[in-house]
NDP-hexose 2,3-dehydratase family protein
Amino acid sequence: MFPTVFRFRQTSEFLDWFAERNRTHRHRVTPVPLDALDGWASDPETGNLRHRTGKFFTVEGVEIITGRRETRCWTQPIIVQPEAGILGVLVKDFDGVRHFLLQAKMEPGNINVLQMSPTVQATRSNFTRVHQGGAVPYLEYFLAPPRRRVLFDALQSEQGSWFHSKRNRNMIVELPPDEDVPPREGFCWLTLEQIGDLLALDNIVNMDTRTVLSGLPEPWPDDLGGPGAEDRGRHSMTELLSWFTDVKAPQDLHRRRIPLAEVKGWTHTGDRFVHEEGRYFSVIGVDVEADGREVARWSQPMLAPAGRGVIAFLTRWIDGRRHVLVNARTEAGSRDIAEMAPTVQCCPANYDGRPEEERPRFLDTVLSADPSRILFDVVHSEEGGRFHHAENRYLAVEADDGVPLDAGEDHIWMTPGQLGSLLRYSNHVNVEARNLLTCLRFLRQRDR
């Protein structure tokens, strides 16, 4: 039996509840050949993978030409999902302590079945019930919140390396004190401190929760660049925005969607779509059965990365405040020329055997860091609805003397508070940097 009270005095009580849900949750994810996916088919002319309804998403090809990456020209498969979903977290104070309503949700790509998701995590196809399944719980709080206080609301990008121009609406909505919202089965209220505890553990808090909580508008601690973030870093906010505009102004990016059948260096085996060197990722098919979802059974393609990635900030103290080294990064599917990204963002296995000039800058600095310089080091999953067993190692590493203050035109030092201010706007801060910011902020909240 699950407890009837869905607030926990100690994180250990939550972990017992979470473990019990994992033990009793019924699910099955079965790999199947792409050519055998129920409801999906390859277009005979383009090779693009499409659902019979024309909804949800497609897998197509994209061609990139840019001077802003280690490789100047390439083609690859990419997920095209033009609709914007909703990622929303409800907030309520209990006895003067802020709590966040999260759900233990199964996604087919999760490496460990259940992870803690936002209150609402739904594509437009889901919440308009294209699948003819059940309604999305709590959706009404984010579609029409007249009596509720909206703390954060922004269209935010998804993984630009795997999605083409994909965005979701990230929302945090605060309930008034007199409004009672009993948690449904699988939902619970967690405090900031408890979420910090869970972020220190591998694969518990999912990507969608991490990106939403990066928008929490409360002031950053002083040593992380707040309050008054604009005037408390090495550069002012005006200088940072000018740097970012200067990076994007040359328009050094040419991108066009192409048929999946025209992607070079990739092979459709019938079972899956793979890179000829086994790098990057594969497109696979899965059949899914699961309790607690709007529909109990479905099939879909997924992207399966070739290895575990590394997402890291180099940090240093400048004028008495912690700064992080931000990279202006161009991705295959980004809506703009570049977004603000972590110092390092890659899968190291993709660069095995490559010459030094093709390896991402600062990757070896992060991987060879002395343990005493590592502020946190934890493995988190990426979006389990589209990516199969996609994990990244999230780190913050104190920079040594070999990392300069002037790190080149594509890198700049700013405080976490300044970067947090910039993510209030669309297409400025990428999802990987937002996830890292949540780790930095909530883990420090826990430690305090």
The first helix runs from residue 11 to 24. The chain has a mean pLDDT of 91. The longest strand covers residues 85-94.
